[in-house]
Amino acid sequence: MYAISLTEVRKNDPVFSSSVVAVEQYLGRLPFNGLLRQLGDTRNLHETLFRRFQPHEYKDACGNYRGTEGTTVEKWNIGRDPSAPAAFSSAYQDVAHDIESLAETIQRMDMSDAPDRYFRKSVFIFQRFQTIHPYYDGNGHIDRLIIKSLMRRHKDIYEYTDFPISPHPFTTGLQICIENYKHHPELLQSYFLNWFRY
């Protein structure tokens, strides 16, 4: 069994693109506390975006975290061998705990924070979601929705250039920034200054 990637399937799909726009609009209409609750539990967003692309053999993967008991992704790890966790992601047994901890961090976001502090906290949330990788596929899209929604809410942070949700702006450089975040958080922060300014 190998990791699933449906990136190419979705890349030019107009229905997927319009679904992403609809989800962005939905998140934009939520009051801030409602947004934080939604971003702390993204399972319904994941199902909304990816259910059309869910492979038959993983019929219940959309909207379920890896490690969810009784699902086809119950014992799913990220990487070439789903039975062994990749170095950069949570093991399936740890996903529920790790995502709950991240949800608590999201709940503590405060629009009255100074913009630099709010920016750094948003980047930390992005990095943490990437390292948890709670879903079998689609983690990047959900993570980009999270950071874009958070950044757009602070009155002193503006979107300098439209930050794309799909197609994704993922590069080797971004991967290096994520992997080196612990010792060099400024690399990932600089990456996001390509889109958001304060």
How is this structure best described in words?
It is a single chain. The chain has 198 residues and is mainly alpha-helical. It has nine helices and two strands; from the N terminus they run H-H-H-H-H-H-H-E-H-H-E. The protein has helices spanning 7-11, 14-29, 32-40, 43-50, 95-107, 115-132, 139-153, 172-179, 185-192, and strands at residues 158-159, 196-197. It has a two-stranded antiparallel ribbon.
Topology (elements, then pairings):
Blueprint lengths: L6 H5 L2 H16 L2 H9 L2 H8 L44 H13 L7 H18 L6 H15 L4 E2 L12 H8 L5 H8 L3 E2 L1
Helix pairs in contact: 2-4, 2-7, 3-5, 3-7, 5-6, 6-7, 6-9
- Rounded radius of gyration (Å): 16 Å
What sort of overall outline do the alpha carbons produce when their principal axes are compared?
globular
Kindly provide the name of the CATH class.
Answer: Mainly Alpha
Q: What class would the helix/strand composition place it in?
A: mainly alpha
Query: What name is given to the CATH topology?
Result: Fic-like fold
**Unreliable spans:** none
Order of helices and strands: HHHHHHHEHHE
Strand content: under 5%
- Domain count: 1
Helix content: 40-55%
Task: Identify the strand order in the major beta sheet.
Answer: 1-2
Distance between the termini: 45 Å
- How would you characterize the largest beta sheet? 2 strands, antiparallel
Please, what is the average pLDDT?
Answer: 88
Tally the helices.
Answer: 9
**What is the CATH-assigned architecture?**
Orthogonal Bundle
Count every beta strand, where a strand is a DSSP E run of 2 or more residues.
2
CATH superfamily: Fido-like domain
